[in-house]
Design brief:
With 97 residues, the chain is α+β, with helices and mostly antiparallel strands. Helices cover 25% and strands 27% of the residues. The chain has four helices and six strands. It has a single domain, classed as NE0471 N-terminal domain-like. The relative contact order is 0.18.
Length: 97
Amino acid sequence: MEENIPVLKEVKPLEKFCLHVKFSDGAEGKVDLSEFAGRGVFALWNDYNQFEKVTIGASGELVWNEDVDMDGLGIYLKLTGKKPEDVLPKLQELSHA
């Protein structure tokens, strides 16, 4: 894993399928996950109590249970509006190779 990738440090469930997240680089704010609610594995969230059970996994991912999780980097990109190559410079190098 690259050294500069921000790591998810804190998560707090909010109303309407939103989370307040905080990353190791200081980026923090509200992320709206309502677009996923009720779809596929996220049908788990039809019981809102299940959505509120979110934790941070060992690899910095958001975890609801053994079948439902989300990558921390994806959440970071959604929060900051950055592109993958902004956070992972090697992606830009590969695209120009």
